[in-house]
UniProtKB/TrEMBL annotation:
Organism: Nocardiopsis ansamitocini
GO molecular function: ATP binding; DNA binding
FtsK domain location: 230-409
Stretches assigned to coiled coil: none
InterPro entries (alphabetical): FtsK/SpoIIIE/SftA (IPR050206), FtsK_dom (IPR002543), P-loop_NTPase (IPR027417)
Protein name (Swiss-Prot/TrEMBL): Hypothetical cell division FtsK/SpoIIIE protein
Length: 478
């Protein structure tokens, strides 16, 4: 009423409509200044009231320091802080792990919450298209908590009603660049509750030397490398099939040889066998004395696969009605059929009959072999259907560096790239780095396989290799 601007006024149409001679604009009511000031005061009071709960250590430290300085003087405060500093130094040197977990990472989390995420939250989300607008008001997802590990930040976010985690999964690249992180991954905890994981540094940047040979190998958890969070990468072979896909030089051999290295004691005592197919004659031939069977031509490879199918079916017939799972023994060893460059047999071999027989044998092994102790570990460069149409028969998949973004979802399944598995962006100078997607888990895990050098393979063959190797037409066509 105090304003000289009317709430409504007639406006001349720029494009008059015959049925309307005039229209009214939306009323505009000016907010009194006292309400704006009161709102800001309320926000400050609410912020101060929440501080002891959000940052109890920092608030407690400032409060105690202020009380000591006020009542006892600055000398007493300096003495107190000297004692505290000495105590922290002793704690850090004597128990570094607990110091880092209970204090160091909490301080880092508080600092990054205030100066990295809260400070840049609105502009990054607005530019990335993750801010929602309704009735001319902007709604932003709310940061609930920030926690830090040795290598990453985990930002727990409360979503705006009506949005889904898929909105964030589609913007992981924008979020990573917005907050200055190498990558971003989204994990759903519940309804409107997600976690954004931002690595602070690349823990897989340095090569990993060949891992020690385990004394008692666990075929369900073979150590083959390291995960991004610093824990060992344990590869399951018994009871599954594994497909390894990557371009030339991506590190497929590191995965294969690391798995073989982890099984060496089982190969030596006869409870496990490796049947190897090596069309290139350059990768697996170097350690062929470790293998129970070996083939390097199209016909010999198909013969090996068909022999594996026959043995598998014979074992299944003996198990029928007696047992449902396989336990490795010398009589019934665990058999790993290693197929290097499987596309040679399924797509590139000039003989159509060889391609058909190979595809049928691989399909039979991957669909029936898990429960009776036969596993296929296959390596491939091109994951397209016309090259390898049996991808879905491999429960566990490993995507090393790939050529195209579309190939990520071909290997790891639909939505893998949206969840941060950017295998097509892996640095060519990081062979062995990959994304792994296990059966039953939609979340890809970034890993790096250990590098098994020629000297390591030579030592393996000297220590564990047989004097003679079983071969299925290994020398044919030479």
């Amino acid at each position: 009423m105090l304003s000289n601007k009317p709430g409504t006024h007639q406006v001349t149409l720029t494009a008059p409509v015959p049925a309307h001679a005039f229209r009214f604009s939306t009323p505009v009511v000016e907010t009194p200044g006292i309400l704006i000031i009161g709102r800001w005061i309320g926000r400050i009071v609410a912020f101060l009231a929440r501080l002891p709960f959000r940052f109890p250590v920092a608030v407690g430290t400032v409060t105690v320091s202020g009380l000591v300085g006020y009542f006892l003087g600055w000398g007493a405060l300096a003495a107190l802080w000297s004692v505290v500093d000495i105590g922290l130094l002793v704690w850090w040197r004597r128990w570094p792990s607990t110091f880092r977990t209970l204090l160091g990472l909490r301080v880092v989390a508080a600092w990054r919450w205030v100066w990295i995420y809260r400070r840049h939250w609105q502009p990054v989300l607005v530019v990335a298209g993750l801010a929602e607008t309704y009735a001319e008001r902007q709604y932003l997802p709310r940061i609930r908590r920030v926690t830090c590990s040795q290598w990453s930040d985990r930002v727990r976010v409360r979503l705006v009603a009506g949005t889904t985690p898929a909105h964030f999964e589609e913007r992981v690249t924008e979020l990573a660049h917005g907050f200055g992180a190498p990558s971003c991954r989204v994990t759903t905890l519940g309804a409107r509750d997600i976690v954004l994981e931002f690595p602070r540094r690349d823990t897989l940047a340095n090569p990993i030397d060949a891992l020690p040979v385990p004394e008692v190998p666990d075929l369900d958890a073979l150590p083959v490398g390291q995960r991004e969070d610093g824990t060992p990468w344990l590869l399951k072979l018994h009871g599954t099939h594994v497909l390894v896909v990557g371009v030339t030089g991506a590190g497929k051999g590191s995965v294969i040889w690391s798995a073989i290295r982890a099984m060496l004691p089982a190969l030596a005592d006869g409870t496990a066998q490796v049947w190897a197919i090596d069309p290139k004659r350059m990768e697996l031939s170097y350690g062929r004395t470790l293998f129970a069977r070996y083939a390097d031509t199209g016909e010999s490879a198909v013969t090996l696969l068909e022999t594996a199918v026959t043995d598998m079916q014979e074992r299944a017939e003996r198990y029928a009605g007696k047992q449902r799972s396989h336990t490795p023994t010398v009589a019934d060893p665990f058999v790993v059929v290693v197929l290097d460059e499987v596309a040679f047999l399924t797509a590139y071999h000039p003989d159509r009959d060889v391609r058909r027989r190979a595809e049928n044998a691989i399909a039979t092994l991957t669909s029936q072999g898990r429960s009776v102790g036969f596993t296929v570990l296959a390596a491939l460069q091109d994951p397209r259907k016309e090259v390898m149409n049996l991808r879905n028969l491999f429960p566990d998949k490993i995507a090393l560096r790939l050529d195209e973004a579309t190939q990520v979802d071909m290997v790891l399944g639909e939505g893998a790239r949206d969840r941060g598995a950017n295998a097509h962006l892996i640095d060519p100078d990081l062979p062995g780095v990959a994304f792994v997607r296990l059966e039953g888990s939609p979340v890809p895990v970034r890993v790096r396989a250990a590098y098994v050098s020629d000297d390591d393979i030579t030592a393996m063959t000297n220590d564990y290799g047989a004097t003679e190797t079983g071969s299925v037409d290994a020398d044919s066509d030479r």
